[in-house]
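Propose amino acids for all 276 sites.
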């Protein structure tokens, strides 16, 4: 686990400030730009310039799960974009699919190509924990992450979902209720910075009774100098640092100041936070 991207001293405020507003302009029968990259917490703002339009989450000119399917919570948005409602806004939730297609449901606008897509990616600087769906397994079965991290579930085959809730009885609590299938091949969960530690259980709503379930253990991030993340900064961490002494590129935990070299500066930082 890496330390939180945002300062603990400024927790909350500093992290919320990372949220961005992404503006998409309606131009004739198009959204410009048609594809944008967003992260959980960001605000998507569509701006009207003329005519009657809307923005509806869905693909193939059909509103997402408008068949009243098993996946509650869809569509994410269905907002007018007209002269009297010239700005439509939607905040990307903690958890969303990796691609969120949308279209204009007015007249034949969608058929004429008035479609767009939000591509959801982990927040910049967020540590990413990946879980792979394979058949009726989530791998790893028990993942570990910290508040501020991003959990990504990758679809591999079949039709599944990611639902949080009462795993024992397979009852969803609607915090996360997202498809994980060929169309929605990624679920991205930005764990809120104030999310409680403990075990977050989740399941596939189609195969919960077949034990298609998993957990994410939410643990406090450890200090950077606690290299082995055992809650202590001690000889074990010192040994790791000394073993990496010298030039160190890429992912190099003992290089605390990330200057490409493990040296006395890093050593001083470790000794300065010595706990035992
Ligand atoms: Cu499943």
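Proposal:
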């Amino acid at each position: 686990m890496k330390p939180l991207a945002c300062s603990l001293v400024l927790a909350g405020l500093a992290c919320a400030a990372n949220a961005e507003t992404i503006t998409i302009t309606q131009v004739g029968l198009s959204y410009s730009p048609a594809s944008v990259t967003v992260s959980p917490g960001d605000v998507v703002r569509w701006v009207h310039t003329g005519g009657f339009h809307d923005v509806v989450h869905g693909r193939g000119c059909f509103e997402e799960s408008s068949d009243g399917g098993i996946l509650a919570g869809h569509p994410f948005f269905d907002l007018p974009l007209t002269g009297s409602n010239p700005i439509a806004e939607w905040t990307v939730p903690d958890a969303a699919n990796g691609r969120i297609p949308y279209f204009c449901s007015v007249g034949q606008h969608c058929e004429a190509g008035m479609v767009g897509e939000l591509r959801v990616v982990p927040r910049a600087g967020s540590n990413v924990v990946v879980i792979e769906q394979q058949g009726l397994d989530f791998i790893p079965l028990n993942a570990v992450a910290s508040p501020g991290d991003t959990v990504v579930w990758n679809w591999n085959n079949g039709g599944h979902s990611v639902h949080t809730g009462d795993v024992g009885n397979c009852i969803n609590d609607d915090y996360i209720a997202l498809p994980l299938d060929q169309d929605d091949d990624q679920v991205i969960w930005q764990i809120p910075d104030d999310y409680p530690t403990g075990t977050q259980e989740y399941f596939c709503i189609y195969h919960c009774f077949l034990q298609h379930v998993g957990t994410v253990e939410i643990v406090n991030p450890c200090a950077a100098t606690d290299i082995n993340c055992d809650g202590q900064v001690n000889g074990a961490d010192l040994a790791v640092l000394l073993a990496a002494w010298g030039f160190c590129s890429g992912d190099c935990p003992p290089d605390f100041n990330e200057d490409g070299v493990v040296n006395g500066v890093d050593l001083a930082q470790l000794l300065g936070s010595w706990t035992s």
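Residues 6 and 17 are 10 Å apart (CA to CA). The pocket of copper (II) ion is lined by residues 136, 160, 204, 206-207, 212 (CB under 6 Å).
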